[in-house]
Amino acid sequence: MKKVTGFLLIFLPLCGFSQMINDSTYKATNGITFTSGQQVKIGLGSRDDGSFKYIEPVTLRGEKVSSDFAAQPVRIWSVRKLKSKETDVVYGFFTTNKNVYRIKIDAALLAKELQ
Predict the structure, then answer these.
(1) Given a cut of 70, is residue 16 above it in pLDDT?
(2) Residue 114: partners with Cβ closer than 8 Å, 6 or more residues away
(3) Measuring CA to CA, which residue among 102, 90, 82, 73 is closest to residue 34?
(4) Do residues 75 and 87 make contact, with C-beta atoms less than 8 angstroms apart?
């Protein structure tokens, strides 16, 4: 019993500092509201080679998203906020070609990767 209590006392605070919160809407820093089911247009990649810095595949970690996504419409199926101690990052998730991608909404807007 003491081991279980000790484990819970250590484990629960760790879960509380970093968690995914599902939100159906998010108002970005520039005033645009993003909702689940909304269609958005991908802009141009902000890296030197034209790939995207703030749009990344969820299923293929470490892979770059090529410039082929530029100027394509995508439908956001989920808006989630990752809350942590230092900062909050809001992601929009979309699917194309059976892959799941996430967009760091505010950073992508500033870099013109999202319109």
Answers:
(1) no
(2) 40, 41, 42, 43, 54, 55, 103, 105, 108
(3) 90
(4) no
